Amino acid sequence: MPFRNTNWRFVMTGEFFRGFREGVMAFLISILLYSLADKELAIGYYTLVCSAVQLISFYYVSRKIKPHSRKHYILLGAVVTAAVSSLFIFKVSIVTIYIYGVFTAFFISFLNNSSAGIIYWVIHKMPNSKKRRIEGMVAREAYLNLGRVAGIIMFIMIRQNLKTISWFVFILGALQIFAWYFFNKTQTE
Questions:
Q1: Per residue of the chain (189 residues), what is the pLDDT tens digit?
Q2: Mutual orientation of helices 129-157 and 6-37 as an angle, nearest 10°?
Q3: Which terminus of the chain is more exposed, N or C, with fewer CB under 10 A?
Q4: pTM given for the model
């Protein structure tokens, strides 16, 4: 049933593209930071700073995002994520990693929270939604994890040098615009 629904296909494709970035970035930034700083403390500071920024972001998102503005916030989160990912093309340093981390920590919640709201709306509008909520959430996680796995496989397949990795990080950030494209096509009215 869900695969015959156009909205369902759009949000699941959006989740796949969102997962593409998440799978790789879950570990890559820490590896880059450790290789540049050669100290685990640098990763601890990075995590502390990004977590604090993300806490502020979640507070902001909980106050500002409304159902009618979700697609705009997804676009903003996707564009900022793509733009800040381009920093790696020019230079990979501790400073660029921190700038990347702070901006993505703040703006990725625009994308994640808004897309989750749209997905929950699509699940709610399906026939027999009360009986199918769990299946909907499992399917969402499956598509998100398929994207994560695809991203990691692509990362493993690329040439492992700093220039190639820098471009790959930019491509992962730019893929978030595809996620917005599919969430934007979802009819939520």
A1: 556 789 999 999 999 999 999 999 999 999 999 999 988 899 999 999 999 999 999 999 999 999 999 999 999 999 999 999 999 999 999 999 999 999 999 999 999 999 999 999 998 888 777 887 888 889 899 999 999 999 999 999 998 899 999 999 999 999 999 999 999 999 887
A2: 40
A3: C
A4: 0.91
The amino acid at 15: E
Spacing of C-alpha 116 from chain mean position: 11
